[in-house]
Every structure is written in C-alpha cells, then in structure tokens.
Amino acid sequence: MTERHPTHPNLAARRDADPPASGARRRTSRAAFVVLAVAALAIALISISTYAQGTLRELADEDAGLASAYADEPALVQGALYVHIAASAFALVAGLPQLSARLRRRAPRGHRVLGRAYLGAVGIGALASLVILPANSAGLVGVFGFGALAFLWVGSAARALLAIRRGDVAHHEAWMVRTYALTFAAVTLRTWTGLLIAVQLPGAGPDPDADALFAQAYAVVPFLCWLPNVVVAEWLIRRRGLPAYRLTTVTTSGQAAPRPAVPAGAP
Which helix (DSSP H) or strand (DSSP E) does residue 153 occupy? Predict the structure, then answer.
C-alpha cells in the first residue's frame, strides 16, 4: 500500500481552484454530519450513564452492558475499562468538530486545542483497551479484532499528529478522517450487534435465548465494527482529494511499477 499525494503541493490552493460544491451536495453533507453527530452523542451519553450507575458487580447483577465480563477481573482491568469508556466517549464527541471545515476556518485555535485533546483521548483509550483485551466477551476473535482496532486507532492518531507537526495539512486531514472512522467503531459496534441479533429473531422460536443471540452476534463484531468504517473513510478521503491509500503493481524486479499521473482536480 502506498499513499497517493494530491497533485497540487498546496492543498488550500487546490481547493480554491475547485468549483464550489452544489447546494444538493452541501445539504447531503450537512445531513450526514447531523446523523453522525446524533449517533456519536447518543452512544457517548449511553456509555457514560450506563457505567456510572454502580459498581461493575452491581451492573453485572442487572445484566447492564458488558459489566459481567469484567466484574470479577482485577482492579487494574476494571479501572482500565472505566478509563477506556471515558476516553472513548470524549473522543467520540471531541472528534466531531474536527471533521467540519467551517468550524476549522472559524476557530483555528479552538481546532488545535480540541484536536490535541482528541488525539490524547484516542491514545489513552487505545492503551486502556489493550489492558482489558484478554477479558473481552468475544474470546480469541475479540483479541485479534479489538486488538487490531486498538493498534490502528493509536497508530492513525500518531500519524495525524506527526503530519501536522511537519506542516503537512493534507496528510493530517486524511489521518484524522481515518482516526475518527476508528473512533466511530463505538457506534457501529452497537449498531451491528443490534442488527445481527434482530436477524436471528425470526428463527429463534417463541422463547429466544437472549444470551445465545448476543453471543452469536458478538462473535463477528470485533472486526465488523471497524472494517467497513475504514472503507468508508478511504472513500471520503479520495472524494475530498486528500492523500489516499492505493494498491501498487509490483514488477518482477520487486519495485513498484510507475503509476499514471493523476490529472489536477481528479478525485
């Protein structure tokens, strides 16, 4: 995989040269942002409120959230769970303004301050998730799926930070989009779990086993919660003309074959 660089070295100049987006496209983008924001805020509030109602043992007795998987774990793991929940919820909310070009233009200082806080929350949330990983409810699939998510999450955040420190705005924006796509796994995890439980209900009989339905659904969620997000993120990055990943053709000599030049303004 290599990254495709924009044809113009100055991303701002390129965007100034591009024609303005149509009214329909702007309305679609705003509607998508509103849906994204509502979903992110809802999951952040639900996560915080659920685990703030009592100890993990108390929540496990009420079968609330995933408390039963961590109620008997050592204090370190339980503490890491709370840190992961808090950091992830903050990242879900703090990452939203970072996606808005209008907000970035109107409040550049606020964008920088909030961006640092967001990237810090991502790093803390990812590290905490590695601590709780062995106790996850999906077993070995969860170790690999959620483990990959954690490494990609903190890795993309680090790439975004390094890019902006170099003054590379285009790559910074691309990596921030990827980072938030992985952050949004907190939303898609719950969405996929609900959908996969729902599709099992017609064949589950008149008295379905809720635990069995959840276990079946959760078995694939560790990968399903973030893989489609990454695909959508790359589509958005290409659509915006940002540096995107693309497969290269490797010649028999082991070197990448040259790619045709990308016309100016091409997606």
Answer: helix 139-165
